[in-house]
Amino acid sequence: MKNIVLTGFMATGKTTVGKKVATNMSFGFIDTDKMIEKMANMTVSDIFEKYGEDYFRRLEKAAVIKAARLKNFVIATGGGVVLNPSNIVQLRKNGVVICFTARPEIILRNIGKNKDRPLLMVDNPEEKIRQLLREREPFYRFADYTIDVSDMTIDEVAEEVIKAYIRLKKG
User: Fold this and answer.
1) How many CB atoms lie within 10 A of CB 71?
2) Nearest-angstrom CA–CA distance, 150 and 25
3) If phi over 0 gives left and psi between -120 and 50 gives alpha, with beta otherwise, what is residue 13?
4) 151 annotated to a ligand binding site
5) 15 is in an annotated binding site
6) Distance CA 10, CA 117 (A)
7) Is residue 79 annotated as involved in ligand binding?
8) Is 57 among the annotated ligand-binding positions?
9) Where is Mg(2+) bound in this sequence (predicted)?
């Protein structure tokens, strides 16, 4: 069985939905950001603050290589994992890549007062979301399937992921 790889912008529900899909499919679940935190023994925010984004992306690449070797897992990735094309190549070797999208205002609502989003620690987070979405959009196109989660419940997204996975793994 191939892995189910969830990509997409931050706060689109990759971890929450991923856990639900893993339970429903009797798959394991892993979150690459949690792997990175374990490797560095610090939070993603602390890594960004202390060492910068480049260092974080190197750790992310190592986490992706480890995660891609797993079998029968749902892998939730960080929002910027797609910025390194080799990450997607790795994840695709044994996985179906499904990308979550959402409107900027939905993303901002989902983030709420969460201070663990280092890229959004700016004066106008919604504008920063729009900018990052524009920059990353070409990278998100490499997914095997895309779901706009803006107006969907967690259960609806999980169901859509499972349906897409079943269709895609046959092909």
Assistant:
1) 11
2) 24
3) left
4) no
5) yes
6) 8
7) yes
8) yes
9) 15
Q: 18 labelled as ligand-binding?
A: no
- Looking at residue 26, the DSSP 8-state letter turns out to be T
Q: Residue 161 corresponds to which amino acid?
A: V
pLDDT digits (tens, 9 = 90+) for 117-165: 766 777 888 898 999 999 999 999 889 999 999 999 999 999 999 999 9
Residue 136 annotated as binding site: yes
Asked if residue 69 belongs to a known ligand binding site, the reply is no
Summary count for the chain: helices (H), strands (E): 8, 5
pLDDT computed for residue 77 by the predictor:
97
Cβ–Cβ < 8 Å for 147, 101: yes
Closest to 74 in 3D by CA, of 38, 121, 20: 20
Phi, psi of 14 (to 5 degrees): -60, -45
* Tens-digit pLDDT profile for residues 65-102: 999 999 999 999 998 999 999 999 999 999 999 999 99
Establish whether 134 is an annotated binding residue: no
Give 114's DSSP letter: -
Rounded distance between C-alpha atoms, residue 132 and residue 118, angstroms: 13
Asked whether the whole model's pTM tops 0.90, one would answer yes
Kindly report the CATH number that applies to the domain delimited by 3-170.
Answer: 3.40.50.300
Per-domain residue ranges of the chain: 3-170
Residue 14 in marked binding region? yes
Q: Tell me the chain's radius of gyration from C-alpha atoms.
A: 15
